[in-house]
Each structure stands twice: as C-alpha cells, then as structure tokens.
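Appendix B, example 12.
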Amino acid sequence: MKVAFIGLGTMGIGMALNILKAGNELTVYNRTMGKEKDLINAGAKWANSPKNAAKDAEIIVTCVSDTPDVEELILGEKGIIHSASKGSIVIDMSTISPAATRHISDELSTKGIKMLDAPVSGGPEGAQNGTLAIMVGGKEEDFNKALPILQVMGKTVTHVGPIGAGQTTKAINQIIISGTYISVSEGLTLGIKAGLDMEKVIQAISGGAAGSWVLHNRGMNIVNNKYPLGFRVSLHHKDLKIALDTARELGVTMPATALVAQIENGLIAQGYGDDDVSSIGRAIRKLSGLK
C-alpha cells in the first residue's frame, strides 16, 4: 500500500517504522527535521509538506500533539485536504477533541476523502513493538480497508463506532489511567512510609486484583522518585482537558479526574511537564512529607 505518515514524535517514529517494515511504500513528513533519518535509511521517502506527503497515498496517517496541530496538517494552507486523492483515507492517531474530529471529517468529505479517528494507548514501548491498543471511529468499510495498516501498529484494533467515537473512547482510557496513577502513587507512598521492601510489595500485589500496567511498568518510578520519559505529564494533562470538556458537554461528573488534572497543573507549574506521567507520584510523595 502507498502510505503517508505525518508526525514523527515519540509515538510516530515507531509506528511509521512498523508500517515500512511490513512492506508498504512510505512517505513521511515532520515539522522539524532530524527524526526522519532512520526511516529514510530504511527506504522511506521524505516530503516537505503534509500536502506533498499525502499526494497519491491510499492511506494518510497523522500523529501529532493537539487539536490545532491536526487541523493545520489536514485543513491548513499546506494541508492534506489540498492533495489527497478521492477515496483515500486519513487516519488521525492523535488524541484530540471528538467535536473537532467530526468537523475535520466533514471538511474532508467535501473532497471525497474518508477519515478514521484512531487514537492509541500503550506508550512508546507499544509504538515501537507494534503492540498498541487502537480505538477506531469511522465507517466500517473504511475501517476494513485500513485494517492491514492498523494491524502492523497495534495488537488490539477495535472499531468502536462512528467518527469521533475513537476519541471519546481514548478519553475514557485517559480517565481510567489517571485514577490508576493516583491510586498507585498513594498506595506505594504508604508502603514507603511504612518502611516496607517496595519491590516485594509490588511483586505481591501485582498478581492480584490491584495488578495493572501502571503498577508493573511505572511503580518503581514512584518508589525511586525518578520519572524517565514515557508519556509526558503535559500531554496527559491535555488529554484530561479533552476528557473533562467532553464530560461537561454530556453532563458527567468526574471528581477524581478533575483532581488528577489539578495535580498535573501543579507539576507543570513546577517545571515537571516533560517528566513521565508517573510523576503524579512526585506530588503524592511531597504531600506525604517524602523527598
């Protein structure tokens, strides 16, 4: 398949490499130069704009940080909409507003261009290993056509409903993750203050009902009070804002999510926005009198 991939950030670089390794013809674009070298060395072509990247592609994947970025890449002056072929499919794998997703899809449809919203979960590890969870909104026939590309990036690929449903599902994912991070932080901080061997504690509780990806993969970050980057606090905070905005639209009360958003606000104000989201543990430790 002829595929364009736009956005070679922490997630995008691994996802694009997996598309290329699967034998697809790949053209890439990123707003800043430097991250494309491995892809070009592996056989990808470089384009100097989203418009040029999308030309002649059957599938166009976007993976950037926020709603305005996606709008610019797709609908802007040098955007995908100006060159993508009729019948081609734009797959937006960013995490953005469901309402904005529906607007972008409507604009693309005026040119006969299809769209799927397909945000992901699984972090850079999942992007690199092709084991992401991908939640897809859009028409079923478009999903089926794009499935071979989605499957090289993800282990679990689920069509969850019409356009925008993928983004709403991702909001649910981020809501649940936020609660997990704060509860893991509280529980482990209790163990630290009690003087327990925290490696043994994590081992003990991981096999029961308290077991989770967060506990297994990020628990020792909280114990060691070191937060190497996996997924930035600032990006998770952006995702929670989308979730809270969506909740307000639907009349849903989310006190736990609002609390985590406030904690992340404080971390960002203190200069920790580029730390891993497990840095929520930093705040709980500090409030509990630990360094």
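Residues 168-287 form a domain with the N-(1-d-carboxylethyl)-l-norvaline Dehydrogenase; domain 2 fold (CATH 1.10.1040.10). The two ends are 52 Å apart (CA to CA).
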